[in-house]
């Protein structure tokens, strides 16, 4: 058992003990490991706590209803097709290449269209400045968390990381605010016109703001959109990359996935999948779940305790 001189931290590796923490309605504050990320995405659903977290979560839960997500299937499929076309061009070369940057751009395009209702076409080389800023910010946040010396503000700025981080945060948050303002104006102009156009995550937030202005301010909307942008593309691209890697390592399982797709689509490879098709992708779902078990995109989750918790004694634990 090791006790730090600052605050004791307890690390656990057993699911049943995680449940003890996650079932608590009190111990929901995130630990200090999220502090640098908070400077970027703000106090959104990922990081907020207390009454703010509860009210926001209740409000946002409806935006993740199955019927809402169903509207985005065409976006997923169309952006996925672009990714396949891009990878097919690269695969014509004889040398290996890293597919993760391509997958990241695909997931970023998907999350921008579904979250903000705008297309940045990063897979086609557009909006490189914003795309590269998001990528670099993710790297800086990770570098900050794994290097304790950077936790000292003078050191963080001495090496230039602080100035770069601040500049990129301003660039990305200004982009989000501009999109929010444009979307607000667009909705005002067409509020009296009937429309069958699918609503983006941002549209639901703006409608919620109209109903609950005391809960969701303009900055609150910006926080939730940036949170959704970060969570939605970074972890997703990591999970997809590992899934493809595993399927490449085990061609016998890859063939079973291919057989399942052939059974669903037959010879119509150009058809976009619908909800019924996705329900039939049972073996593919098993492969994805096994990937998430073996290589979780978020390898650790931390909490700052607000009250004492009784932990079972029959499991290993480490204090540091």
UniProtKB/TrEMBL annotation:
The cofactor named in the record is:
heme
Q: Which UniProt keywords apply?
A: Heme, Iron, Metal-binding, Monooxygenase, Oxidoreductase
A GO MF term: oxidoreductase activity, acting on paired donors, with incorporation or reduction of molecular oxygen
Q: Which Gene3D superfamilies match?
A: Cytochrome P450
Annotated TM spans:
none
Pfam families attached here? Answer: p450 (PF00067)
Q: Cross-referenced InterPro entries, in alphabetical order?
A: Cyt_P450, Cyt_P450_E_grp-I, Cyt_P450_sf, Cytochrome_P450_Monoox
| Protein family (similarity comment) | Belongs to the cytochrome P450 family.
PANTHER family, from UniProt? Answer: CYTOCHROME P450 4C3, CYTOCHROME P450 FAMILY 4
- Name of the protein described by the UniProt record: Uncharacterized protein
């Amino acid at each position: 058992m090791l006790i730090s001189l600052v605050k004791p931290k307890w690390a656990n590796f057993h699911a049943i003990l995680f449940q003890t923490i996650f079932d608590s309605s009190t111990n929901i504050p995130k630990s200090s490991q999220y502090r640098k990320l908070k400077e970027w995405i703000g106090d959104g659903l990922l990081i907020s706590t207390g009454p703010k977290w509860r009210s926001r979560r209740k409000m946002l839960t409806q935006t993740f209803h199955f019927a809402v997500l169903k509207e985005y299937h065409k976006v997923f499929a169309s952006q996925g097709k672009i990714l396949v076309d891009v990878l097919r061009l690269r695969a014509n070369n004889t040398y290996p290449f890293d597919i993760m940057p391509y997958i990241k751009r695909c997931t970023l395009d998907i999350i921008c269209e579904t979250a903000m209702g705008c297309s940045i076409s990063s897979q086609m080389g557009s909006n490189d400045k914003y795309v590269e800023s998001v990528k670099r910010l993710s790297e800086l946040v990770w570098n900050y968390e794994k290097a304790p010396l950077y936790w000292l503000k003078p050191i963080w700025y001495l090496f230039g990381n602080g100035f770069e981080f601040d500049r990129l945060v301003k660039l990305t948050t200004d982009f989000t605010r501009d999109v929010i303002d444009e979307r607000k104006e667009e909705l005002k102009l067409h509020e009296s016109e009937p429309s069958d156009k699918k609503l983006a995550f941002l549209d639901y937030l703006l409608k919620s703001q109209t109903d609950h202005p005391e809960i969701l301010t303009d900055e609150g909307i910006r926080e939730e959109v940036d949170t959704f942008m970060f969570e939605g593309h970074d972890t997703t691209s990591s999970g997809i990359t590992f899934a493809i890697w595993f399927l490449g390592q085990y061609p016998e399982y890859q063939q079973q996935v291919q057989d399942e797709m052939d059974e669903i689509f037959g010879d119509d490879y150009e058809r976009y999948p619908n909800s019924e098709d996705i329900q039939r992708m049972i073996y593919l779902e098993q492969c994805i779940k096994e990937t998430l078990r073996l290589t979780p995109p978020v390898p650790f989750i931390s909490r700052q305790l607000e009250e004492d918790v009784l932990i079972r004694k029959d499991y290993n634990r480490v204090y540091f």
